[in-house]
Amino acid sequence: MKLLILSDLHCDNNHQRLGKSIVPAVSSYIREVAPDRVLVAGDMAGGADRCIRYIEELEQNSGVALSYIPGNHSIWTDKRTDSWHEYEKLRDHHSSLIGKPLLLGTDWAVIGDMGWYDYTYREDSWSREECVSRKESYWRDAAFARWGMEDEEVTDRMLDSFRTQLEAHRDRRVVFVNHFIPYDDYVPISPRNKVWNMIRPFMGSSRIGDLLDDMPHVEHVIFGHVHYRFGTKRRGDKLVHCHPLGYTSEWQSQQIEKEIRSASCVIKL
Ligand SMILES: [Fe+2]
Ligand SMILES: [Fe+2]
């Protein structure tokens, strides 16, 4: 069983920035790798409808089924709807892993959901109120992610869903996927980059990592969100994979054909 891992394709933004769709190049790369399934760890595009359109285009053009969990951009919405509405649209799509672990053979399960952030990565000297005010100034979720509840409560919901599903599949080896950073060593304070330091609280939750640390049957952990290609690293008994595509302004080249190769990895189960 071969899984191709992708994240943060931002198909809509990258189309705009490149002046052409990235779908043909990504599809042709998928055909070349010929995985049994593609797994995308969020941020396909902005809003659920666009995500679904790109998921279906990629599936049709590559001929390979895709499993998806939302990123923060996937649930962005205007004032007419709330983000749960976007989340539920994606949950109900055939590609979704939300509440529907993908069982592969007799041994493996792919378990995933969006995840969220809860300010556990804030600097020790920052109060919660300071995080909230920095979110307003520096982080676009403040305008477009509308949960009707606090970020910590969204994270609590995600943690409950992860725990329940991970407990229920203790008899299997697990590939875990969420959009956000589960480990604090991926969110170091920068000596130079002040904007990065401001947005660290919105990168993920160490509570997700703590949960995974208690689950030895989780052998692979996949995330995106941070647009830095950390690659695949060993962490105790797990392999941790972070291979986001990100925006063209963050790429080494302006060639999608080249970038998609370094923004992906294959897991063989
Ligand atoms: Fe992203
Ligand atoms: Fe993101």
From TrEMBL:
Coiled coil: none annotated. Transmembrane segments: none annotated. Pfam families: Metallophos (PF00149). It comes from the Bacteria. NCBIfam families: acc_ester. InterPro entries: Calcineurin-like_PHP, Metallo-depent_PP-like, Pantetheine_PDE, Phosphoesterase_putative. Residues 1-228 form the Calcineurin-like phosphoesterase domain. This is Metallophosphoesterase family protein.
